[in-house]
Specification:
Elements (H helix, E strand, L loop, with lengths): L1 H4 L8 H4 L5 H23 L6 H19 L7 H16 L5 E2 L4 H6 L4 E2 L14 H14 L4 E5 L4 H13 L3 H5 L4 H11 L4 E5 L5 H13 L3
Length: about 220
């Protein structure tokens, strides 16, 4: 229906067409696709506008309007919340609630064992602080422990991401890897990464909504 309404401009993922994706995830993702499609259409209509800032404002107004309409808020009854709380406490008592070690002892201590399963952990840093490298190290560590891991990237191309991971694993400088001077290290990394439950997602949306949608899809897939 969404595809037809947009004149075929929205490409619906196969997982949605075949009913594999969670309904909530699918509806949010399709809604975001419609917003992006409308933005592109409006941008095309305004391409001859002399006031570039007016174009940006009007395009963003469309996105903001639809985002507010599509933002669904739901509340859970207290009995349901309490039942979930009891379930978590019981699992803790049995040692069934796990934490994923980050590989950095001090951070794991602060996080009571690492990244807690079922929680969302926010970590931040200034430009050049090493956020991407840090998260790649955490992701590799989690995947090596058998956790299904999805790494969502919105800036760097896949080759650069894989190059950094290769350097972390083999401890060979990135420049030597890119120049082809250490093909043995490249092959060794391939043998390693292809066996891990690791997925790389390139998210070109570059906004919070598309990021949340990508996270939900990854979680639905078992990450």
């Amino acid at each position: 229906n969404v595809s037809n309404a947009s004149g075929g401009a929205v490409l619906v993922p196969e997982s949605f067409q075949h009913g594999i994706a969670d309904l909530g995830v699918a509806s949010k993702r399709l809604s975001e696709m419609v917003v992006l499609s409308m933005r592109e259409k409006l941008s095309a209509e305004l391409k001859n506008d002399d006031d570039a800032f007016d174009v940006i404002r009007r395009v963003n107004d469309v996105s903001n309007e639809f985002s507010s309409i599509l933002a669904l808020h739901e509340s859970q009854p207290m009995p349901s919340l309490y039942a979930n709380y009891i379930d978590v406490v019981e699992k803790n008592a049995e040692g069934r609630v796990m934490a994923i070690p980050t590989g950095f002892p001090t951070l794991d201590e602060w996080g009571y064992g690492g990244l807690r399963v079922g929680n969302i952990s926010f970590l931040g840093g200034g430009p050049g602080a090493g956020k991407t490298s840090f998260m790649l190290r955490v992701s590799l560590n989690a995947a090596a422990l058998g956790f299904r891991t999805a790494f969502i990237e919105g800036e760097m191309p896949p080759n650069e991401i894989l190059g950094r991971m290769n350097a972390m694993h083999t401890r060979v400088p990135v420049n030597d890897l890119e120049a082809g001077r250490r093909m043995d290290a490249v092959t060794d990394f391939g043998d390693y990464i292809l066996k891990l439950p690791f997925q790389l997602h390139i998210d070109s949306g570059r906004n919070v909504q598309s990021l949340i949608a990508a996270i939900r899809e990854a979680v639905h897939a078992g990450a």
